[in-house]
């Protein structure tokens, strides 16, 4: 059965709430998942929420999404700035893609200013903390409703 929205989380996001809380806050990945599911439920949509530290796993999930999901929210974390392979996989996905970053990557180190994923994303949300995920799900739910 197809899931409406796939939410992918890249490396180190499993450490949310523990790793650099001054940058990423105290919320956990479980908190992010609850928020995404809550917003999706409001609109009658389903969420498939996943995390991996592995670039290959994220790419495999994007490939699967071509047949199993209508849209993607992705926080590629460090792979944003390094993974042309992830960008290429996302470019083969026909639905809308929203890239999310908890911190404002444009106010951080210069190497974080370039995101390969942004080049194929429908939209980018950064610097709004974990609320960016809920905004992305809200946006996609509105978009999917318009398609119906």
Automatic annotation (TrEMBL):
<comment type="function">
    <text>Catalyzes a trans-dehydration via an enolate intermediate.</text>
</comment>
<feature type="binding site">
    <location>
        <position position="88"/>
    </location>
    <ligand>
        <name>substrate</name>
    </ligand>
</feature>
<feature type="active site" description="Proton donor">
    <location>
        <position position="101"/>
    </location>
</feature>
<feature type="binding site">
    <location>
        <position position="81"/>
    </location>
    <ligand>
        <name>substrate</name>
    </ligand>
</feature>
<keyword id="KW-0057">Aromatic amino acid biosynthesis</keyword>
<comment type="similarity">
    <text>Belongs to the type-II 3-dehydroquinase family.</text>
</comment>
<feature type="site" description="Transition state stabilizer">
    <location>
        <position position="19"/>
    </location>
</feature>
<comment type="pathway">
    <text>Metabolic intermediate biosynthesis; chorismate biosynthesis; chorismate from D-erythrose 4-phosphate and phosphoenolpyruvate: step 3/7.</text>
</comment>
<feature type="binding site">
    <location>
        <position position="112"/>
    </location>
    <ligand>
        <name>substrate</name>
    </ligand>
</feature>
<dbReference type="Pfam" id="PF01220">
    <property type="entry name" value="DHquinase_II"/>
</dbReference>
<feature type="active site" description="Proton acceptor">
    <location>
        <position position="24"/>
    </location>
</feature>
<keyword id="KW-0028">Amino-acid biosynthesis</keyword>
<feature type="binding site">
    <location>
        <position position="75"/>
    </location>
    <ligand>
        <name>substrate</name>
    </ligand>
</feature>
<comment type="subunit">
    <text>Homododecamer.</text>
</comment>
<protein>
    <recommendedName>
        <fullName>3-dehydroquinate dehydratase</fullName>
        <ecNumber>4.2.1.10</ecNumber>
    </recommendedName>
</protein>
<dbReference type="InterPro" id="IPR001874">
    <property type="entry name" value="DHquinase_II"/>
</dbReference>
<feature type="binding site">
    <location>
        <begin position="102"/>
        <end position="103"/>
    </location>
    <ligand>
        <name>substrate</name>
    </ligand>
</feature>
<dbReference type="GO" id="GO:0003855">
    <property type="term" value="F:3-dehydroquinate dehydratase activity"/>
</dbReference>
<keyword id="KW-0456">Lyase</keyword>
<dbReference type="InterPro" id="IPR018509">
    <property type="entry name" value="DHquinase_II_CS"/>
</dbReference>
<dbReference type="InterPro" id="IPR036441">
    <property type="entry name" value="DHquinase_II_sf"/>
</dbReference>
């Amino acid at each position: 059965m197809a899931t409406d929205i796939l939410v992918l989380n890249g490396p180190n996001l499993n450490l949310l709430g523990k790793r650099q809380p001054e940058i990423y806050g105290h919320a956990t990945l479980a908190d992010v998942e609850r928020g995404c599911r809550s917003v999706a439920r409001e609109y009658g949509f389903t969420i498939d929420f996943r995390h991996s530290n592995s670039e290959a796993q994220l790419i495999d999930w994007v490939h699967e999404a071509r047949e199993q999901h209508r849209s993607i929210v992705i926080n590629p974390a460090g792979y944003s700035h390094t993974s042309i392979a992830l960008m290429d996989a996302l470019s083969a996905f026909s639905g809308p893609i929203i890239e999310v970053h908890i911190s404002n990557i444009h106010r951080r180190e210069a190497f974080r200013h370039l995101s390969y994923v942004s080049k194929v994303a429908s939209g980018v949300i950064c610097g709004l903390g974990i609320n960016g995920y809920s905004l992305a799900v809200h946006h996609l739910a509105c978009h999917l409703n318009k398609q119906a």
